[in-house]
Amino acid sequence: MIRIISAALRATVQDRGRFGQLRAGVPPSGPADPFAFAAANALVGNDPDAAAIEIVGSPFTFRCDDRRVIAVTGRDVALRLRDRIAGWTAVFARAGEEVRIVAGERSRFGYLAVSGGITTDTVLGSRATYLPARLGRALQAGDALPIGAMRVDPTRAGRTLVAPEYQDEQVRAITGPHAERFTEEALAVFLSSTFQVDASSDRMATRLGGPDVVARQGEILTCGVLAGAVQVPSGGAPIVLLADHQATGGYPVIATIITADLGRVAQRLPGEPLRFVRVARDRAVAALRDERRAFAAIA
Amino acid sequence: MSISVREFGESALLVEIGDRIDESIVSRCRAIADAWEAAGHGAAIPAYASVVLRFDPLRLDPREAEREAFGLSQRAIAIATVPARTIEIPTRYDGPDLEATARSSGLSVDELVAAHAGREYRVFFLGFLPGFAYCGMLDPRIVAPRLERPRERVLAGAVAVADGQTAVYPFDSPGGWRLIGHTELVMFDPARQEPALLRAGDRIRFVRS
Question: Is the pTM of this model over 0.90?
Fold first, then answer.
């Protein structure tokens, strides 16, 4: 068991996402920052399908009944056990030892993985929490969650992965699928401007302010969407969809953030700048391959 | 029928087979989604005239995925794999937009209700919210553009119309459709074996209660 002593502003169990219910209109949910989530699992030796805990705010404090390898990832996060230990590092925690996640000023979504993974019951084929439809719930102080058998020995502790450049305001995107619904000028504005992250951003979307990007036609026939899609509603302020996005949408998608950079969009804080640079699909696949290679190297 | 296959990021494709709401196009989208999922490449999301096909680009080369999506879209024939059901939705016509919608349609409230309850609709697809089913088509006399300013809160069970379509809100949520009534039916319940009450392809009928 992992016992939650304090549950921060909001902490939820997430696995990679509930992709089997999109056709019933159920958002995928899963981690807002998929790279940090996958890294946390890789650090502790879990399968990519294992569930971990997504944490917003602080304080988040817990203990495990038995000894475990644990890791915290995300933007500006660290662990405090006996000492303060940097994020993105596999750490050995003793049985019953109290561990606190240290969320810095720039932290937004943190991920705590425990070797063996969180093994709460699945709902509709997944452990991903989607609060609006009450698929799972927010964790509370006093919760005890089951965890799987520890799969790696404690010598794993000390392994690290490199965090992405969360300070970098530039993210890579593939234009389309509705790029032709925008004029060349609008596309140029989109690719050359600096946008600001709006305070209303959440797990559903990173909402942006800045110059308006005007579509030729305001709405499209509703179509399926995915995390990373940059929708442009008729008002002209782009929205980058994240984990809790609706399965379908009615606004043209000017570009799609490459999977490797999606977490950096989610981790942007209100008021921070964001710029888009266009890349070809091959580059996006290569970035994904590098990611998996980094995980394989510490397996 | 023209088929276009577009990049949707590096891990998905968007197949478009039309640009209007038409029952035969909708069923063909569903057939394409079924075929993609049956091939084991990943999840698919069909809508009116397009399908999103997801895949892992490290397991399936994106160019190969495109070829396959194209071929499969050409071959896909809309066959009902599951027999269509007819589901009745007991409805009280008491929504806040009932009178205004009747007025904008040039109908009396009774005529509007008779027009809405008087026909069978097809469930096109689900999206927007868990269990939210896009159904149509409305009697063309019903004129109901989306609200210019969506409501911040529509209650679960609200029966709504917009742009030729009708739906029931499964959860309390923001919403831009015009509300003409409500039902007590639970549209989405994760504890049910099939959580969404409606599935694409079903026929539905609103019954005055």
Answer: yes
